[in-house]
Amino acid sequence: MQPHDFWQELHAPGSFDPMEERADFHVAELPDGRQLRLPIRVLADGEHALASLIINQASFTVLEALAAALAARIATHNIDVVAGLPTLGLTLAAAVARALGHARYVPLGTSRKFWYRAELSVPLSSITTPNQEKRLYIDPRMLPLLEGKRVALIDDVISSGASIVSGLSLLTSCGIEPAVIGAAMLQSERWRDRVDIDGKQWSERIVGVFSTPILERSENGCWRRPN
């Protein structure tokens, strides 16, 4: 597959064996059994790899399917408003809000406008941009939409947990405690300890459409799920 071919098509249930070793893609399954091929990103040690999802490069069909599936999973929490994490989480958050029947959502941001306030920001780090110093902001004009409401905090992928921790830190500093935290993909289990580091069991509130493991290199050079 060419790089631009990934994330463009959903396949019927059973199209691929999810346990088969492969050289270039990993198979993820949606709750309804449909399958999505994800590219494999090799980690620094050369012996492990992760499946990748970049949702703002996905087809509208894939985006809408992931948003609908995530909306169905968080609907039981009676969400009043969806808040999205930048950058890729904004694409999914907007689609999830629409799938829930909401008229709008609240985007968090990394670009400081002149009317933003320093106290309504926290440092932001990301596994995909590890060397960039950024801050996460909330527009003070958006706070009334979140205060006293049942909020869903949405990101596209939860991997190391760094972005989610920043989002939780910002919202809780504003007196807002998300009822649920959602993502299209939960990438391995590395994020659990990090999101629970302050003693709050945030991991219990996290839901995803599908999960992917850390892959291991096999003897023939392909990638497989761990035993």
Automatic annotation (TrEMBL):
Coiled-coil residue spans: none
InterPro entries: PRTase-like, PRTase_dom
Organism superkingdom: Bacteria
Occurrences of domain Phosphoribosyltransferase (ranges): 59-187
A Pfam short name: Pribosyltran
GO molecular function: glycosyltransferase activity
Keyword terms, alphabetized: Glycosyltransferase, Transferase
Name the record gives this protein: Phosphoribosyltransferase
Organism from which the protein derives: Rhizobium tropici
